[in-house]
Write a structure and sequence with these properties.
Elements (H helix, E strand, L loop, with lengths): L5 E4 L4 E4 L4 E7 L2 E7 L8 H18 L5 H4 L2 H20 L17
Antiparallel strand pairs: 1-2, 2-3, 3-4
Length: 111
């Protein structure tokens, strides 16, 4: 079996071996957050299954240079963007012109 006979689809994050075995990764292909192997071909040993899986992940990592920008972004950047979006939404609701005026309760004593 040729363990180097792979084709990659960088849009979906999948690699397909000539035997029909597929691997799908989530996150950066060079450092995936999750790997979803497909059904292994019939009749291959556990050692060859592990080798096939490893060679597929390595192939995806090499093909990851042409991956979309969303795969190459830093997860911290995505979190920061999500926080900024929530803060902007909260500010938009807090600064609305039709917000009712409420009396302010203060515990300060007037001296």
């Amino acid at each position: 079996m040729n363990f180097d006979d792979w084709t990659a689809d960088s849009v979906t994050g999948t690699a397909t071996h000539a035997t029909g075995f597929t691997i799908r990764v989530e996150g950066n292909p060079k450092d995936p957050s999750e790997v979803y192997p497909g059904k292994f071909p019939e009749g291959i040993s556990f050692v060859d299954q592990a080798r096939l899986l490893r060679s597929g992940i390595e192939f995806l990592a090499k093909a990851g240079g042409s991956a979309p920008k969303s795969w190459q972004s830093n997860p911290q950047d995505a979190k920061t963007e999500a926080i900024k979006a929530r803060e902007e939404l909260a500010k938009r609701f807090a600064d609305r012109p039709d917000k009712p005026q409420r009396s302010v309760l203060s515990l300060k004593k007037n001296s």
